[in-house]
Amino acid sequence: QVDYDVCSNYGNWLYSAGIGNDPRDSRKFNMIKQGLDYDGNGDYVRLWLPELQGIKGADIHTPWALSSAALSQAGVTLGETYPQPVVTAPEWSRHIHQRPGGSPHPRGKRGPAQHKDRGIDFYFSRKKDA
What we know:
The chain is mainly alpha-helical. Helices cover 28% and strands 3% of the residues. Residues 2-97 form the Cryptochrome/DNA photolyase FAD-binding domain.
């Protein structure tokens, strides 16, 4: 089955690009949060970015935040085998926390996303989990 609706898809792409219709000021699409929520282990990223295959788990969403030792172990050299980020939005910092071992971990202490099986009521209810 193909899940395709022209109006919804184009509208979502425009919204994600920051040119959609949104009444909230300074609304930005948080790529790190979306990656962690919908690709918590980084399997999708690993599929399309083979140069990051050596990075384990959710760390793949923020390779620039890894230590040089972790990058070296994964066979990644920022600026050579994988580009440096063009921008790093301040909003991303809340998704990058230090682990006891010293290497950053995007999910912090929360672990992987827990809302795979949320029904449609979740998205339309007033009560939101944090």
